[in-house]
Amino acid sequence: MNSDNPLVKMAYIKENNISLSNVKDSSLNKQVKAALLDESYKEEFFRRIFETDTSDYSKFNDIEMIYLYVHQEKDQDEEKNTQQNTKKEYVRELLHVYLLLNNNRDQFGIPFNTNGDLFRTLKEKHIRLYQQWLKTAPLGKGNKPYSIATISRKTTIFKSFLLYLYNKQYITSPIHKEFLAAKVSKKDRPNRDISKKEVIQLLDYYRTNPIVHGFLSILVTTGARIEEICSAKVSDLTYEKDEITNQYHYWLEVTGKGNKNRSLLIHDNVFEAIMRFRHRRRLDTVLNPIDHSPLFTTAKGKAYQYKNLSMFLTKHIREADVPFIQINNQLKEQIDAGLLPEKRIRSLSPHTLRHAFAIISAENNSDVFRIMQSLGHEKIETTMIYLENKQSKEQNVGQDWKGNDILNYI
């Protein structure tokens, strides 16, 4: 596939019926994904859509429609349109489902048509069979089925894509309406609660490791997302005077979901932890408003990819030789060995530290609205999910029994 023509590149995967296993790790997969993410092709696609007075999507194939969906513009303000990380997720998920269904037409009962299109041939029964496969396929962690949260995410993306195809009259049937609900309830959510005492154990364990300790320090004291830390620049870190208190504070400007900016307060000792990180990486430790290089870099001086950093920190968190992690690992081993029924053990990852920030902030009597703003949530309901276990225990009616006469007789 050496052609520079985007239509040739994107059609190649369909015409050659590339198998899912081959596409997973091959350079070909990277080329196809790169083509689907290349925004320089948008103008050519736009021209083809409006070759006549009205928009016409019938001339495109399935892979090209994935491209058009990923790069659709919903707002004149570019910052309000789909961001790059989200586009990558859409490409990954939609390419996966296309290959899965196209290469297993017999299993899903999908007929072949003369032009080889897949999405135009889908019916209600194919959607139900796909959802059944999604629920039982051993492709999740530990070769187990996907979690309901993963199923919900995959379903949402595919359903949205099929709605797009219907609205553009690429398909004639509203099959997006045939999806069964895949809502994430409280029992389906991973337990990410972590106490102040446990955070201290983790920080103490990695105190002599300036790389891990630096990341843990900033994540737990700011509630930042991994993606926000990866994209932070040296110039985003400033030292400013509070005109009301006349005190100086460090602030880190980050870009969150929806390309929205917010400021994170960096406490003095957290700033020192960041500087120890940069010193270990042989980076400049002086603030510079015109230095737009990454604030945190790999050993090779490159900006972190957020998935790589997430895996790196998850590995170190789960390997920490501290009591609460030892217990969690032992419970997981017992479950894997079939000695215990499925039980919700704690999900320990960098995102756990974001939950810790919310929980500890609430314990410091911070208002939930302020916590929501600091986390960059758009809805207070999302913040309440972080706090629901803590509040459930605090509001348990058993708390009112303290000092009750009956307890004195037990």
Task: Walk me through this protein's architecture.
- The chain is mainly α and 410 residues long.
- 52% of the residues lie in helices and 5% in strands.
- Helix 1 crosses helix 3, helix 11 (210-222) packs across helix 16 and helix 17 packs across helix 18 (380-394).
- It is globular.
- The N and C termini lie far apart (78 Å).
- Mean pLDDT is 86; it is low at 1-9 and 17-26.
Percentage of helical residues? 40-55%
Order of helices and strands: HHHHHHHHHHHHEEEHHHHHHH
Distance between the termini: 78 Å
Per DSSP, what share of the residues sits in E-state strands of 2 or more residues? Answer: under 5%
How many H/I helical runs?
19
Cα-atom radius of gyration: 25 Å
Largest sheet composition: 3 strands, antiparallel
Which strand order do you get reading across the main beta sheet?
1-2-3
What is the 3D shape? globular
Low-pLDDT ranges? 1-9, 17-26
The class by helix and strand makeup works out as mainly alpha
What is the strand tally? 3
Q: Whole-number average pLDDT?
A: 86
Q: Quick recap of the structure?
A:
Helix content is 52%, strand content 5%. It is mainly α and 410 residues long.
Main features:
disordered N terminus; 19 helices; mainly alpha; 3 strands; 410 residues
